[in-house]
Write a structure and sequence with these properties.
Elements (H helix, E strand, L loop, with lengths): L1 E6 L3 H13 L2 E6 L2 H10 L4 E5 L1 E2 L2 E2 H10 L6 E5 L12 E5 L4 H16 L5 E4 L2 E4 L4 E4 L2 E3 L3 H12 L5 E2 H8 L9 H14 L6 E4 L3 E4 L7
Parallel strand pairs: 1-2, 1-3, 3-6, 6-7
Antiparallel strand pairs: 4-5, 8-9, 9-10, 10-11, 12-14, 13-14
Helix pairs in contact: 5-7
């Protein structure tokens, strides 16, 4: 499932957009301030950032500049009350003007993601586990493994950070939208247990006691 981070202070607009994009197959995390989305971006990189042009704690263009300066390389789609000054918009950014049709927003999102697709590594692997992001397909050896959305996001996040230990707190925040959603450490433990069972207890998925989890090719594990 493709992750989108959305920064919007208007709860009514945010929930309407989130519901529509969720139905279109995206996983949307909503943030009411720019400071909150910055903190989230330090933990996980989504496929795209959707941002209202004017926020209480800053502007969309300043957030975009921060994203570029920190080397995240993410496409940004602005939602603006009027057409932004054209010189402020460059690849891979785009914008829609309020009021906007949700179908138009979806078209712009898909267009930006297609542009970015060539630059994103689509094939991830660890030992015999292979993940194809473009097809959202997971294989364990020759066997295709069917995962739930949360299991898939967990595996994707760990494989994107292969060789690094990812804390439980980071995984909880990255995989589940904690805004209004009751998730706990037990939720993560149960999801990891189910994932391991479906992948036939892979040696490359390691538990780092009291900290989190790490995926690493077996021959590199010491």
């Amino acid at each position: 499932m493709i992750d989108i981070y959305y920064v919007e202070e208007d709860k009514r607009i945010a929930q309407a957009v989130k519901k529509f994009l969720t139905q279109a197959g995206y996983h949307v995390c909503v943030f009411p301030t720019i400071d909150q989305i910055k903190e989230a971006l330090k933990r996980m990189r989504p496929a795209l950032v959707l941002v209202d042009w004017n926020m209480p704690d800053g502007t969309g263009i300043l957030l975009c500049q921060w994203i570029r300066q920190n080397g995240y390389g993410l496409p940004v789609l602005f939602i603006a009350a009027r057409s932004p000054i054209h010189s402020l918009i460059s690849e891979p950014e785009d914008y829609v003007v309020k009021p906007f049709e949700l179908d138009v927003l979806l078209v712009r999102i898909r267009a930006l993601l297609r542009k970015r697709c060539g630059a994103v590594k689509q094939q991830l692997s660890c030992d015999v586990i292979k993940l194809d992001r473009s097809r959202m397909q997971v294989c364990c050896g020759a066997e295709e493994v069917h995962l739930s959305p949360s299991e898939y996001r967990l595996l994707l996040h760990l494989m994107q950070n292969k060789g690094r230990t990812v804390t439980r707190e980071t995984l909880l925040s990255a995989i589940w939208d904690t805004n209004g959603t009751d998730v706990s450490n037990n939720t993560l433990s149960v999801t990891v247990k189910r994932l391991r069972a479906k992948l036939h207890q892979p040696e490359c998925l390691k538990t780092v006691h009291s900290i989190g989890y790490r995926m690493e090719d077996s021959e590199k594990i010491v």
